């Protein structure tokens, strides 16, 4: 159900950015959502938790819907801010946007490090403790991904970002298939078909 954030993002995009979607584009967004849901179901295969064992509650659904709207709003509003001042460098805008996140995370880290220091009398203030080459690789790739998405939102749209996110697992799966002999389920193929059709018809421009 987390894939509903695709629909909520499109709805908020229409409200905040004032983007008008054609009927075909709405159909593409729905197909993209369905493809994401099918892919999520396929991801559960092979896990110890069966689909029949998954329980939902009203509170859980309410929280999930809130998550979908908050996630969609965050993405759309970020795009709104980035496009509001097109003359500014996207890198400068990223610095302004991420400063708040850095500050809050730094405060949380200092509080936790101090609490551990008080309870164990050991120094936990080394922010790079335990970092390895793999850690830095993850950090760098995540930073590059953030910059890439910022460029997409500034010069294109959140909808394009959603299509990229939806297509990313298929690139990973294809590489895993060739490198690690990963078994591909039928749901994966169906999901890929839905997403491919969604991408094609979203950009369909009848003459």
Q: Can you give keywords for this protein?
A:
7 helices; mainly alpha; globular; 207 residues; membrane; Sugar phosphate transporter domain-containing protein
Describe the structure.
With 207 residues, the chain is mainly α. It has one domain (3-87, 124-204). It has 7 helices and no strands. The protein has helices spanning 5-16, 23-44, 58-84, 90-120, 133-155, 158-180, 186-202. Helix 1 packs across helix 3 (58-84), helix 3 (58-84) packs across helix 5 and helix 6 (158-180) runs antiparallel to helix 7 (186-202). The two termini are 36 Å apart.
Quick overview of this protein structure:
With 207 residues, the protein is mainly alpha-helical. 75% of the residues lie in helices and 0% in strands. The chain contains seven helices and no strands.
Set out the fold topology.
Blueprint: H1 5-16, H2 23-44, H3 58-84, H4 90-120, H5 133-155, H6 158-180, H7 186-202
Helix pairs in contact: 1-2, 1-3, 2-7, 3-5, 6-7
Low-confidence blocks of residues? none
Distance between the termini: 36 Å
Question: Which structural class should the secondary elements be placed in?
Answer: mainly alpha
By DSSP, the count of extended strands is: 0
* Shape, principal axes of CA atoms: globular
- Beta-strand proportion: under 5%
Tally of structural domains:
1
Proportion of helical residues = over 70%
Counted by DSSP, the helix tally is 7
Specify the biggest β-sheet.
none
Listing every helix as H and every strand as E from the N terminus to the C terminus, the arrangement reads: HHHHHHH
Radius of gyration: 21 Å
């Amino acid at each position: 159900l987390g894939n509903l954030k695709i629909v909520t993002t499109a709805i908020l995009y229409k409200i905040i950015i004032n983007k008008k979607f054609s009927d075909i584009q709405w159909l593409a967004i729905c197909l993209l959502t369905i493809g994401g849901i099918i892919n999520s179901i396929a991801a559960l295969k092979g896990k110890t938790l069966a689909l029949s064992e998954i329980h939902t509650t009203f509170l859980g659904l309410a929280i999930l819907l809130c998550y979908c709207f908050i996630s969609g709003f965050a993405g759309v509003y970020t795009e709104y801010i980035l496009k509001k001042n097109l003359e500014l460098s996207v890198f400068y805008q990223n610095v302004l946007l991420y400063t708040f996140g850095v500050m809050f995370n730094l405060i949380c880290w200092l509080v936790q490090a101090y609490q551990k220091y008080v309870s164990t009398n050991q120094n936990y203030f080394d922010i790079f403790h335990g970092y390895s080459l793999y850690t830095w690789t993850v950090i760098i790739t995540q930073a590059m991904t953030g910059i890439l998405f910022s460029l997409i939102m500034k010069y294109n749209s959140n909808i394009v970002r959603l299509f990229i996110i939806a297509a990313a697992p298929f690139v990973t799966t294809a590489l895993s298939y060739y490198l690690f002999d990963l078994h591909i389920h039928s749901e994966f193929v169906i999901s890929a078909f839905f997403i491919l059709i969604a991408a094609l018809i979203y950009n369909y421009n009848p003459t």
